[in-house]
């Protein structure tokens, strides 16, 4: 074993840098860079169709830009270290000398310096300074900085181990092991929280960023990688592995800190630390952005970021940099991953893109017209499903994953979904391989070691075999993922009974929507029951079927679907609806001397007889009473009116005159089917 091989292993996790929305707009920012002046506008044909994120400006109104130097611009300067109190003495001396000359020539003050992954800087610039820099032959690109946003029975199930939980995702990749201390994982994100299940050995934060942000995305990633193997909480894939938190920003903690400039600064810091470690690293990027198919000349913002990441991957023997194995999430758009992630597509390039599977071993995709990640990040809504295609190199757990979380400053655990959680499973697995296999010296060797442990359970993605990561390489049989969509309830393998609270009651001939959908199934058997009695059976049906709007009579209706995959594995789902008898319509009842009268029947009472007339309206909130009697001319006219009376009332000791008397009661109810109910009673006095 060489001396270099005996040094500590470093694994880098870059998580939550860019949400799809923010980085989908990044390419648009390229087209908009410097548009504060009309002279900077680019031809419309070169502008990408993307939304433009908000500008990052200072109090003077200058816009924040990222500037990259031309490839050979710094070569003529001395490499001797330069100490700059703003950026320290760890940067390349040639780049720093060039930076100082550019600052002096253009009267600017850099806020960030880059020399490890990129050669360049970031600064607030006026329109005139942007124009001058773009004319400077030492400058390769000038691009506006952008804000960042973060994103039934089964093959595996969460298992309780005492008071702790072994998540199904950890089991799927080969189970948990305790780190031997030979690896360090760098998590580049908003900053890992102070969670008792996750140990952080060191922290760093980008300029103006908080060391611990308010968004716990990085805490969740850290738990998947390294949660302690103890008696509480959850257990990580590489339990207890050393973690270093590199925080690039959180706008809720520090305004305008969550930016690409800070992200590149964090990557620069990571590469510097990895070079000192002297051993191949693992880089996990749990974020995605839309890869541009065209760029605006002079403003390659997304390519600049990709160049920074590629610099992390590539070993540099001249400087002793060992290189880094790069792992990225495939994205949650249910689209071609080549448009949303690294797309070099080389078998041993030191990079792998990871899609998400569920606990049946099936790819996460839309079900019953709903997003596959419907149990998604608690701060965001549903997303369609895992991206797919030839750029996805491996698949790993990403749906309903349990990991560490922060509720403010209080540590907790939640279940969440997304390809952000698939990538760290593979990153942690790679770190374990590096820890236990000292002969893995290059990113390509690490990638080949991971690829050697990809297994197929029979599931397909877009018609091609899906291969998921497993440290042991143990075989498994993927099962169909089957779910029902009934009424307004979310899609699921066993939705609650529709018609029971809190869903709206199904009364009389209840009407509701019904559909099932199955991923990975060849055929399904469907059976329907009423009050437990089989009433219909259809065998060998399609993996998806829609009944549409159903009308059913009174009773408990249940549908069971059993589906089979090509490998013979089966799975099932069930949905139920309860239809109840319609309640009788509320009525107003008149009574004479306590005896209910018959609706529409006129009564005759002597004028010498005293009696009691009453009404009662069950379920009413208030009633209006209108009374009429015949005048001497024989016409029936108003007698009296009593608005806002109670739902029940009695007139006692009544004596009539020789005339026709009519009482009409109109009452309000809370029943939407019968908002107003009424009744009339006519009595002749003689």
From TrEMBL:
Entry GO CC: extracellular space
* Active site, renumbered: 189 (charge relay system), 217 (charge relay system), 420 (charge relay system)
Residues forming the Inhibitor I9 domain are: 65-147
Reading the lineage from the top rank, the first entry is: Bacteria
A GO molecular function annotation here is: serine-type endopeptidase activity
Annotated GO biological process: proteolysis
- InterPro entries (UniProt xref): Peptidase_S8/S53_dom (IPR000209), Peptidase_S8/S53_dom_sf (IPR036852), Peptidase_S8_Asp-AS (IPR023827), Peptidase_S8_Ser-AS (IPR023828), Peptidase_S8_subtilisin-like (IPR050131), Peptidase_S8_subtilisin-rel (IPR015500), S8pro/Inhibitor_I9 (IPR010259), S8pro/Inhibitor_I9_sf (IPR037045)
Instruction: Tell me yes or no: is DNA damage among this UniProt entry's keywords.
Output: no
Which terms are listed as keywords in the entry?
Hydrolase, Protease, Serine protease, Signal
Q: Which Gene3D superfamilies match?
A: Peptidase S8 propeptide/proteinase inhibitor I9 (3.30.70.80), Peptidase S8/S53 domain (3.40.50.200)
Ranges for the Peptidase S8/S53 domain? 182-450
Is Nucleotide-binding there in the keyword field? no
The signal peptide annotation in the UniProt record is 1-31
Q: Which family does it belong to?
A: Belongs to the peptidase S8 family.
Q: What is this protein called?
A: Peptidase S8/S53 domain-containing protein
Could you read off the lineage of the organism from its UniProt record? Bacteria, Pseudomonadati, Pseudomonadota, Betaproteobacteria, Burkholderiales
């Amino acid at each position: 074993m060489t001396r270099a091989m005996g040094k500590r292993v470093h694994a880098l996790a870059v998580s939550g840098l860019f949400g799809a929305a923010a980085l989908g707009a990044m390419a648009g920012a390229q087209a908009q860079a410097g548009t504060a002046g009309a002279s900077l506008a680019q031809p419309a044909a070169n502008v990408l169709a993307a939304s433009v994120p908000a500008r990052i400006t200072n109090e003077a109104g200058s816009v924040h830009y990222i500037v990259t130097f031309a490839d050979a611009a710094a070569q003529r300067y001395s490499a001797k270290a330069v100490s700059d109190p703003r950026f320290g003495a760890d940067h390349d001396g040639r780049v720093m000398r060039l930076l100082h000359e550019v600052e002096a020539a253009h009267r600017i003050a850099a806020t960030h310096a880059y020399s490890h992954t990129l050669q360049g800087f970031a600064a607030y610039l006026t329109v005139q300074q942007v124009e001058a820099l773009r004319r400077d032959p030492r400058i390769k690109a000038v691009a506006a900085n952008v804000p960042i946003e973060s994103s039934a029975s089964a093959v595996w199930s969460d298992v309780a181990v005492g008071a702790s939980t072994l998540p199904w995702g950890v089991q799927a990749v080969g189970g948990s092991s305790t780190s031997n201390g030979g690896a360090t994982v760098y998590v580049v994100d908003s900053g890992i929280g102070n969670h008792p299940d996750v140990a952080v050995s060191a922290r760093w934060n980008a300029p103006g960023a908080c060391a611990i942000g308010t968004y716990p995305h990085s805490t969740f990633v850290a738990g998947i990688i390294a949660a302690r193997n103890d008696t509480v909480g959850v257990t990580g894939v590489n339990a207890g592995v050393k973690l270093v938190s590199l925080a690039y920003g959180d706008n809720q903690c520090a305004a305008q800190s969550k930016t690409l400039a800070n992200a590149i600064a964090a990557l620069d810091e990571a590469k510097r630390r990895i070079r000192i470690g002297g051993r191949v690293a693992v880089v996990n990027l749990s974020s995605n952005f839309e890869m541009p198919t065209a760029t605006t000349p002079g403003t390659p913002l997304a390519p600049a970021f990709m160049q920074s990441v590629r610099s992390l991957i590539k070993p540099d023997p001249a400087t002793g940099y060992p290189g880094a194995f790069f792992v990225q999430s495939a994205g949650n758009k249910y689209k071609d991953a080549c448009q949303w992630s690294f797309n070099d597509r080389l078998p041993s390039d030191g990079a792998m893109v990871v899609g998400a599977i569920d606990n049946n071993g099936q790819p996460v995709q839309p079900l019953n017209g709903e997003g596959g990640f419907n149990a998604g990040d608690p701060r965001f809504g549903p997303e369609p499903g895992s991206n797919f295609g030839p750029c996805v190199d491996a698949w790993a757990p990403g749906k309903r994953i349990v990991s560490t979380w922060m509720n403010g400053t209080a540590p907790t655990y939640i279940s969440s979904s997304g390809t952000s959680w698939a990538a760290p499973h593979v990153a942690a697995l790679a770190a374990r391989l590096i820890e236990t296999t000292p002969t893995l010296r290059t990113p390509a060797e690490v990638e080949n070691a991971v690829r050697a442990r990809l297994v197929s359970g029979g599931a397909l993605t877009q018609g091609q075999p899906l291969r998921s990561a497993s440290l042991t390489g143990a075989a498994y049989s993927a099962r169909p993922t089957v779910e029902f969509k009934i009424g307004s309830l979310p899609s699921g393998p066993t939705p609650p009974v529709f018609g029971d609270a809190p869903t709206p009651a199904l009364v009389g001939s209840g009407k509701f929507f019904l559909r099932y959908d199955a991923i990975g199934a060849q055929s399904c058997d469907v059976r329907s029951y009423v009050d437990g009695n089989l009433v219909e059976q259809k065998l060998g049906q399609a993996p998806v079927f829609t009944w549409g709007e159903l009308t059913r009579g009174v009773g408990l209706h249940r549908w069971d679907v059993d589906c089979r995959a090509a490998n013979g594995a089966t799975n099932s789902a069930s949905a139920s609806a309860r239809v109840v008898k319609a309640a009788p319509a509320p009525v107003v009842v008149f009574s004479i001397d306590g005896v209910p009268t018959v609706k529409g029947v006129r009564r005759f009472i002597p004028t010498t007889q005293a009696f009691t007339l009453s009404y009662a309206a069950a379920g009413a909130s208030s009633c209006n009473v209108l009374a009429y009697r015949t005048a001497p001319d024989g016409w029936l006219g108003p007698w009296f009116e009593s608005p806002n009376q109670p739902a029940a009332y009695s007139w006692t000791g009544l004596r009539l005159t020789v005339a026709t008397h009519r009482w009409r009661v109109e009452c309000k109810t809370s029943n939407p089917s019968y908002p107003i109910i009424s009744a009339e009673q006519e009595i002749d006095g003689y």
